[in-house]
Amino acid sequence: SLDRARAELARIEQLASMGAVSQLRLEQARDVVADAEDDEILRRWLYGNVGVEHLSEAQAKQMVAAAERRVQRAGKRYEEQAKLVAQG
User: Fold this and answer.
1) 69 alpha-carbon distance from chain centroid
2) Rama region for 69: left / alpha / beta (φ>0; ψ in -120 to 50; rest)
3) By the number of CB atoms within 10 A of the CB, which of 23, 61, 64, 70 ranks highest?
4) pLDDT tens-place string over residues 6-52
5) Residue 15 contacts by C-beta under 8 Å, 6 or more apart in sequence?
6) Across residues 72-77, what is the average pLDDT?
7) For residues 37 and 43, what is the distance between their CA atoms, to the nearest angstrom?
8) Is the pTM of this model over 0.90?
9) Are 9 and 1 in contact (CB under 8 A)?
10) Number of other residues whose CB lies within 10 A of the CB of residue 12
């Protein structure tokens, strides 16, 4: 959930400030929060009380932007994993 992701990010930020975790781990925690925030937007409009046919243009743009951000983050994770695989 979003609350858990935010709490975990706060914990990791504290550890990062002490040098106990890497910047990569901090970035990953930020991505988890961003994914949870975008999931919340998508869930609210896709599965909420408002039917898709009643969405405003602004709501539709929010949904598209959230989905695009998720795709960008997934692409970034894929590229990072592909680099690791290529390195053996």
Assistant:
1) 8
2) alpha
3) 70
4) 999 999 999 999 999 999 999 999 999 999 999 999 888 777 776 76
5) 21
6) 94
7) 10
8) no
9) no
10) 20
- For residue 34, the one-letter residue type is A
Query: What is each CA distance from 75 to 21, 61, 68, 70, in whole angstroms?
Result: 24, 21, 10, 9
Contact predicate 37/2, CB 8 Å: yes
CA–CA separation, 55 and 88 (whole Å):
47
Kindly give, in sequence order, each residue whose CB lies less than 8 Å from that of residue 83, ignoring residues fewer than 6 positions away. Answer: none
| AA identity, residue 27 | E
Compute the distance between CA of residue 1 and CA of residue 79 in angstroms, rounded to an integer: 26
| Comparison of pLDDT for 72 and 51, the residue scoring more | 72
- DSSP state letters, 10-26: HHHHHHHHTTSS-HHHH
Beta carbons within 8 Å of 62's beta carbon, 6+ residues apart: 41, 45
